[in-house]
Amino acid sequence: MSGIAFSEPLVELHGISKHFGESDTRVDALVDVTMSIYPQEVVGLVGPSGSGKTTLLNVIGCVTEPSAGRMRLNGEAIYDHRWLRRDLRRLRLEKIGFIFQTHNLLPFLTGRENVMEVMELAGVSSVDAGRRAGDLLDYLQVGHRQDAMPAQLSGGEAQRVAIARALANSPRIVLADEPTAPLDSARAAVVMDLLRRIAIDREAAIIVVTHDESIFNRFDRIFRLRDGRLVSVDRNRSAETIATVLANVPRTVIRGDS
Ligand SMILES: Nc1ncnc2c1ncn2[C@@H]1O[C@H](COP(=O)(O)OP(=O)(O)OP(=O)(O)O)[C@@H](O)[C@H]1O
Ligand SMILES: [Mg+2]
Q1: pTM of the model
Q2: Helix (H) or strand (E) holding 207
Q3: What is the tens place of the pLDDT at every residue in 222-241?
C-alpha cells in the first residue's frame, strides 16, 4: 500500500458543502467535507441515516451540485463553486460507475442488453460488448439469466446485473450505495472481490456506502459521516491481504481486452 500515498488522488474534495432548501426548511446535508481517495483504494462511507452519505456520492458522481467548495476528479477540476464542465453526462458515462441500492435496469432490455447498452454508448462494438457483458454476468453468477427481462429476475439477480452495468466501462471511479444489501454474504463477498480487482487492475477508486459490518474488513479506509460532517477516517489494519483476495478473481473477466 505504500505506493498509493504518492499517486494523484482520483477524487479530491475541498470544503464541499451542500444544503437543501432555505431558512426554516434548510437542511445542511454536507458541511465542509474535505477528502481524497486514491487509485486502487476501496473505501467505505458509513454513518447514521440522514448523515449525508448518498448526498456525498451524488456530489462525487456529478449528479447533485454542491453549494460550496471545490472538487477534482481524475486530476481534473470539475467543480469550483460552479460546474467547470458542460458535458457532465459524458464524464459520468466514461469515468464513473454507479451501483444503486435498488437496481436501475431498463425494463425493456434483457440483462445482457442492459450491460451492453452502456458499453455501446461508450463506443464498444456490439460483438465485443456482447462477449464482455456475458463474461461479466457469468462472473457475477447471473450469466444463466442474461436473457431474462429485469421483471423476471429475483431482487438479488437484478442487483447483480445492475452491478455489471455499472462496471461495464471499467470506470476509474465506482460509487456504490449499499451494493451488497440485497445479497447473501457469499455473494456480497464475490461483489467485494470484484470491486477490489477493478480497483487494482484499472487503478480505480471504489467508494461504498454501507451498513453491512460484515464487509467493513474489506475497506482500506472507512470515512464516517455525522450530520453532514466527516468525523473520522479509520485506516483498516486488519488487512486480509490483497493478494489473498485477488487469488479468487479471474483476471480476464475484468480486463475486457482479451
Ligand atoms: N433532495 C433533497 N431535498 C431536501 N433534503 C434532502 C434531499 N436529499 C437529501 N436530503 C436531506 O439531506 C440529509 C442527508 O440525506 P442523505 O440521503 O444524504 O442521507 P444518507 O446518509 O444517505 O441516509 P440513509 O442511510 O438513510 O440513506 C437528510 O436530512 C435528507 O433528508
Ligand atoms: Mg442514503
Answers
A1: 0.85
A2: strand 205-209
A3: 999 999 999 999 887 664 54
At 29, give phi and psi (nearest 5°).
Answer: -75, -35
Q: Give, for ligand 1, the residue of 53, 56, 100, 224 to mutate: max count of ligand atoms closer than 8 Å to Cβ.
A: 53
Q: Give the C-alpha separation, 165 to 153, whole Å.
A: 15
For residue 59, give the ligand nearest its CA: 1
Per-10-residue mean pLDDT, the chain, length 258: 63 98 94 96 95 96 96 95 91 88 86 95 94 90 94 87 88 90 78 83 90 88 96 76 52 47
Residue list, ligand 1 pocket, CB within 6 Å? 20-21, 27, 29, 47, 49-55
The three cell numbers locating residue 190: 464475490
Which ligand 1 atom sits closest to the C-alpha of 30? Answer: 14
Contacts of 72 (CB under 8 A, 6+ apart): 9, 11, 12, 78
Structural domains in the chain plus CATH codes: 39-63+87-255 (3.40.50.300)
Q: Whose CA is nearest to atom 24 of ligand 1?
A: 49
Considering every ligand atom, which ligand is closest to the CA of 45?
1
